[in-house]
Amino acid sequence: MLSWYEIAHGLIGGIFVGAAYALLSAGFSLTWGVTRVINLAHAAFALLGSYITLTLLEMAGIDPLVSIVFIVPLLFLLGLGLHYFLIKPTAKRTRDITGASMVLCFGLYIIIENLLVIMFKSDDRVLHSRYSDISLAIGPISVALTSIISLAIAAVSLVIIYFFLNRTYTGKAVRAVWQDREGAMLSGINVEGVTAITYGLSLATAGVAGLCLVLMYSVTPFIGFSWLVFVFLVAIMGGLGSILGVTVGGLIVGLIVSLGSVFIPLAYINLVLFVLLIIVLLIKPSGLFRR
Amino acid sequence: MLEVKNVDVFYGHLQAIWDVSINVKEKEFLTILGSNGAGKSTLLNTIAGLNRAAAGSIEYKGVKINGLEPYKICAMGLILIPQGRKIFPMMNVLENLQMGAYLPGPRKTVRQNLEKIFATYPVLKDRSGQLAGTLSGGEQQMLAIGRGLMGNPELLMLDEPTLGLSPKLALDMLTSLKKFHEQGMTLVLVSQETMQCLQLAERAYVLENGRVALQGQCSILLADDKVRKAYMGI
Lengths: 291, 234
Ligand SMILES: Nc1ncnc2c1ncn2[C@@H]1O[C@H](COP(=O)(O)OP(=O)(O)OP(=O)(O)O)[C@@H](O)[C@H]1O
Ligand SMILES: [Mg+2]
Known about the structure:
The complex is a heterodimer of chains A (about 290) and B (about 230).
Chain A: H1 4-35, H2 42-60, H3 68-93, H4 97-120, E1 135-138, E2 141-144, H5 145-167, H6 169-179, H7 181-186, H8 191-216, H9 224-238, H10 243-263, H11 269-283
Antiparallel strand pairs in A: 1-2
Helix pairs in contact in A: 1-5, 1-6, 1-8, 1-9, 1-10, 2-3, 2-4, 2-8, 2-9, 3-4, 3-8, 5-6, 5-8, 6-8, 9-10
Chain B: E1 2-11, E2 14-24, E3 29-33, H1 40-48, E4 55-60, E5 63-64, H2 70-75, E6 78-81, H3 93-100, H4 104-107, H5 110-120, H6 122-126, H7 137-149, E7 155-159, H8 167-182, E8 186-190, H9 194-200, E9 203-208, E10 211-217, H10 218-223, H11 225-232
Parallel strand pairs in B: 3-8, 3-9, 6-7, 7-8
Antiparallel strand pairs in B: 1-2, 1-4, 4-5, 9-10
Helix pairs in contact in B: 3-7
The complex binds adenosine-5'-triphosphate and magnesium ion.
Adenosine-5'-triphosphate (ATP) binds near residues 14, 34, 36 and 192 of chain B.
């Protein structure tokens, strides 16, 4: 018999994973919306964030919270590089940037995954930081401190992205390019530059999401694929380019996974998620929360 | 002010503009006429930097601008209000206008420009918090023009600003253009409303199948029987 305790536990767990998935999906949905590029390598960049966190802690004793200041600039630069050296030249040579970039990014995903295997072996890696093994009691439920930290980082990051997109000139330009590329060009927006910033932001947030996830779970170089599955679900449920939508989508997916695992065997949860995805696509193809 | 010389433009292998030369003088009100598919939009888009000229040259204020990115052309005060408006449907009216002032120069004059635009098109002020995609066709056109004005244009090109408007709204729209011209702006107007354009503007080019078929003072073209027959059906 299921107890309220188990359900409450599932709910809270769902919020923790959901927030991390929301952050992981935000950048994916942004580059998809702005450049029509489906970045299949997105989760691999998140994994890079996880491994940077692990390495900095193990090699130099750098606190996971401090590693944010390494992850964000590094992945931002990788994002600029991704745009200028791979996406932009590809876009110039093809009419179907979505299709071409999918193949390109899939290749990139394989390369990053293999590099990670070479550098870190394929074993399960767990982050043993000074935050590990500490639990806080929320009523009768005990919650890992790492989960709370992860939630806080994800929430703050999502709020920052939201404010960037809705309150700053550059952020608004990102939305403008997404909504009408030519209209943006004619408004005097440097579309190339704004697109590069979008990639920088996208990968930087992916890296931070990778940090959040490695705070809560063990990782292997191959976990990127299952993250990608969640990213797809969240992006499509949330609608492209809407941070509010992505957040709600992330929480829904998180809750389904977490609560689902209370009721049904873990193996069936992917089944439930994809049936749900197909239903969403049939009812509202633009995403549940797109205006 | 603007000098287009012997320009060819292609879409893939199809040529849309053939050896077109036009010039616009400072403070002039020019109109470019022509039937559907004559190449009017292609010409304006090429000047604004959206299309590439395969041959020929485009000079603005003595500087070669073909090949420049559109935002650099905007920065020089040459601004296009495109056919189909191309506003940002999921941003509100005010944000759309702000985007028109994205460049560093125009960003300093946001307040003055907003005041001027709201004085010309008061409805934009009333709807400043509304999503642009929910505006009526006429309001969207005003917004598109307002967004262009935010960039401090010296030469403003308008591609079919009256398309889809009721005759009354179209007339209001053209009247507001006249006001801009009187304030010292150089204008290039593209429209299917041959008669009204010829009455409003000073000089005209007529495009046919991607070539300049005719050019001259509007008053002379208006008086010409052949022109009246061929382009106004009277
Ligand atoms: N993106 C495009 N790809 C291919 N051909 C195009 C494209 N845009 C326009 N054309 C072709 O180029 C020619 C000129 O079109 P353009 O839109 O410049 O004409 P227009 O004079 O502006 O017509 P309208 O009055 O319909 O706006 C047409 O034959 C059109 O079919
Ligand atoms: Mg046209």
